Amino acid sequence: MIFSIPSDFKEETINCLEKLNKEKEGKAKIAETYGQATETEIQSSGRVTEALPKVTLRTLEDYVKYSRDRGIGFNYTLNPACFGNYEFSLKGIEQLLRFLRTLHNIGIQSLTVTSPAIFEIVSGSGLPFKLKASAICEVASPDKASFYKKLGADRIVLDPDITRNFKVIKNIYRAVGDASEIIINNVCYKNCPYKMFHYNHEAHCHSRHGEQDIKDYYTNRCSLQKAGGVMHPIRLNWIRPEDLHYYYELGIRHFKIQGRQNVVTGDVVKTLRYYIDEDFNGNLYDLITLFSPYNAFQPYMDNKSLDGYIGKFIKQPCDDLCGECGYCENFAEKSMEKAKVLEINKNATTFFKEFDTYTKVVDCRAKKLRKEESFCELLEDF
Q1: What Å distances lie between residue 262 and 225, 259, 338, CA to CA?
Q2: Burial class (CB in 10 A: 0-12, 13-18, 19+), 80
Q3: Of 108, 183, 274, 296, which has the fewest Cβ atoms less than 10 A away?
Q4: Are strands 153-157 and 130-133 parallel, antiparallel or unpaired?
Q5: What is the tens place of the pLDDT at every residue in 212-243?
Q6: Is the dihedral of CA 242, 263, 79, 206 positive or negative?
Q7: 6 beta partners
Q8: Is the pTM of this model over 0.85?
Q9: What whole-number distance in Å separates Cα of residue 161 and Cα of residue 192?
Q10: Which H/E stretch holds residue 183?
Q11: Helix, strand, or coil (residue 287)
């Protein structure tokens, strides 16, 4: 099993990973960490910049060298869902090419990329980067996986929404082979209607884009959605450590741990150990958030009570008719205390509705406009 994990840019973490590679030789390997510089001319990626470790290009250069000297690569995340069409301007193309050369000169050999246009810019640069197609590419079919492989992707992160669709994963593996990579601790709700828009939002959340007054819309809506039902934690796109072998048996060798925004306060090495050992006795939420809860309303989801859950999906894909099935709901009640989850969900809903900045601003502005219109009507009548 080959792992890619988010970087906290600490030498002591690299030391731990080097030690872990020696301990687990033959069973698992941490091949790379991934992340980005946050204090540089190009900051857009798949995460809100202010939530990431603060990293300059000089710090990055030192970290990359320290990692490579210990047998661990680094993958630079140049993967926003949107560059605001900057990549189609002469100025933007030149700046991106200069930035790629800067990354190459400081020792970076691998990039995670989303836009096909950026793939072509990297190819046109003539620099020998290895490329990974981001999960933001939403690769959920063999045809789309083949497209990115032909475009130059050495690895392709599969859309987390197909994590439990073994038929599709198998077919993608048949199409692109060992290029396939799967996120194992995805915290997103399956088939989330906000996902595409959230990706675009994250692409523009950085210090060089200062026109945003409201920053909590998607985190708020995400939290409200997860608090919308007892079974919703079950419908997140996670994979349990005990179930990794099912994916390995399909041919999948590359596994990705997500959570660049969690590494500062979380424990990625601890999380990684449980996945390598394929055994965990505790709250599954701890693993999918790197032991750093994303809010105060996470229920306790007993991992061992989910033994056997994946079996149904190995036999047949989920039809997503949750109102008719009841399968996930049954496992929700096995792995969580229903009364406690209902109470947590109630408190979460109350909290996020109370502190919903977007709704308050819309209501306030709408009332203001209605008053202005009413005043104008009075003047007309007068």
Answers
A1: 21, 5, 27
A2: buried
A3: 296
A4: parallel
A5: 778 789 889 999 999 999 999 999 999 999 99
A6: positive
A7: 34
A8: yes
A9: 9
A10: strand 180-183
A11: helix
